[in-house]
Amino acid sequence: MSEPLYHLKVAVQHAIDDVYGHKIEVDSIALTETKKEFEGDFTYVVFPLTKTLRQGPQMIAESIGSHLISKETPVISGFNVIKGFLNFTMPSEFWIRTFRQMTRDTGMGLSQDGQGTTVVVEYSSPNTNKPLHLGHIRNILLGWSTAKILESVGYQVVRTKIVNDRGIAICKSMLAWQKFGEGKTPKDSGTKGDHFVGAFYVIFEQKFREEYEAWQSSEEGKKMLDGRENAHEEEEQFFKKFKNQYFNEHSALGKEAKAMLLDWEAGKEDVRKLWAKMNGWVYDGFDHTYARLGVSFDFKDYESETYVLGKDIIAEGLQKGSFYTQADGSVWVDLEDRGLDKKILLRSDGTSVYMTQDLGTAQMRFEKTGAEKMIYVVGDEQDYHFQVLFETLKKLGEPYAHGLYHLSYGMVDLPSGKMKSREGTVVDADDLIEEVIGEARSGAEERGELADLSDDERKDIYRKIGLAALKFFILKVNPKKRMVFDPRESVDLQGQTGPYIQNAYVRIRSIERKNTETESGDYGNYNHLDKTEKELVSSLMNYPQEVGKAAQLYDPSIIANFTYDLAKKFHKFYHDVRILGAESTEARSFRIALSRRIAQILAHAMDLLGIEMPERM
Asked: What is the pLDDT of residues 226-235, one digit of tens each?
């Protein structure tokens, strides 16, 4: 909070004491920005005082405002009352003093509430049978931005991911390469490693469908299908229902893939070597994509290493009586008293399920980092899974269990609809990055404002604009909402987009380059602030509060929407008010200083979203 605004709260506190003989704490006095439809800058709502002071809200507000004016309180120049809303108008001196104070604060005024607290943020968590795609991008950007926001308010953040590098889906890619790959490698084919392996996952699905269609005409197939009720319903719908059974009981490819998985779990050397080689190709591809997005990790967990970690925890839970064993030997947890269900933790043959793995991984991360909080950035289709995980850890009495949070997010669609991995209709991350950079390039070349730069300089600007378009378009949406991503709309310089905000920054940098006159920096006597100038200072005052809110709610969209609002106000200011050609030296000095501070806040806020600012566009 600015010092002048704190002085207003103290003045209100004294007025209530002087007029009514009633003492209240300064911290209980909440001041909010006056709504745009009313006159004033800040509003104090007096309704909570009516019961204690035994007067109507209109009378209380009038009495406080009149007392402040009679005392010639320097922090206000006027007031008005709308029912129980006391609206204060602040003098130019208030805004100048507030602005001076914030420019002296090199820390952007951010609180450090997270100081001394370690938090683990898990994001990305891909499968090694396919490349990163648009859905992963939302996950990655949410995780990276949330980590940066938490760091900005003092948290010690540990970034991690768990790589789903084992299981039947990975074996499908391996088997398809073994049968149809002809020994080729990503280098041979000039294909990025994750794309190369992902293509074989699609090939497996295609061959599997071909096998199924042939099986339908076989004696076994005819006999099986003729005996099934509704077997001749719409083929696609029937296949979806029957697919798993066909894979497990009738498919030759399914039999081979399952045998490969058993060989992997048994540690068969040739299968393990093939698995390590193909996963290595995928990791190289992933790392390239992460680097293009500007994200990284402090450490990585692998399902192949963690899937057995939970067994010791489960054994301990059985000893404590937290879990129970069924007649077939499987282990379960009963969470019905917590509004959930009964959940299997170990199969009857002693093999693990996803819950086993996640229990062990949580324990391992706590032992490694001592984290008080762990945030899992995972799509909303896993909401129930994480409720069960968190409640199971609470039932075990784990010390970190109450600091667990599932940052659940909605899926991302394209204007054309949903994406399907198995059918190869997913928009992968690399193609999408290229597309938004291409859109940025087209727009910049059409405007022709970068012609004097070198090719490398132009490419770097196209990259910054394209990635800003992609990142901002995704992060401006509340995580819980499903969204549609439109690459063309994302680069619109006039919409609620990353490039629109970058353009505000670039305009300010242009003003600074054109400012050839020596500044005294003295704007203390400037006392005719324009309405837009007050609005901009007010927005800058709110920045620490918005960052704090985003950190508390794990919601980068709060930062994104703040930056858009600030950029929009600056663009209006830029068009309506003379800056370099201001009417006085004091006005010019203030407006340049104000613009510079806006650029600093925009750059800081966009950095929290993982977005770089260009010097030109």
From this structure: 766 665 566 6
